[in-house]
């Protein structure tokens, strides 16, 4: 009598989201378990204990027992982040060595992985302290800074349809008392045929250095890839000489 043979069915195809306990290596996961990583296409080998060194971090959460891990075709745990800046983070987790190169980029990745002790150490470095602490606190005192920066770029692009260069004027209104005379400034520029696109910054309550604000504007516009330079344009005294408005010109070069 013919007897049917048992047919072994192929194992289920590995999905891109696999619960962490279903590691490509059989056996119970421990802190000493060796883990192979594919970070942005570059391979790393470490232990589970290293990755979980700081409980509560996003990196530790990625490799918790309840997490779902992405796997590559070879069964490595996959993280879709820049590998160049993951390496110094891994070295810090292994030895406590603080990175000395690519500080802004490593700082960004440390924030992503939520490794708070490393974030704090990097924030004390001059490269991060100046940008993330000092400069950020300065700009927080300028109401609408980000919105006005975007407006400057939009106006400059709108004027560049048939021109190699386009200019935007920035008028600094330092106090609420000055703000009441802002329309007078616009009328003056129009009467003298100097009227271009004008963006108003202010008023603000803090005492700010105008040159520092202009430096921040130029730096942030250049960071977006634009060719721009700024210069002092003119000082306008109100008709009764109560206030003086400082106006600056930002010139964009397109080709």
UniProtKB/TrEMBL annotation:
GO terms for biological process, alphabetical: protein homooligomerization
Domain BTB as annotated: residue spans: 33-130
Lineage: Eukaryota, Metazoa, Chordata, Craniata, Vertebrata
Region ranges (Disordered): 1-27
The protein's name in its UniProt record: BTB domain-containing protein
UniProt organism field: Macaca fascicularis (Crab-eating macaque)
Gene3D superfamilies named in the record: Potassium Channel Kv1.1, Chain A
Pfam families referenced in this protein's UniProt entry, alphabetically: BTB_2, KCTD_C
UniProt cross-references to SUPFAM superfamilies, sorted A to Z: POZ domain
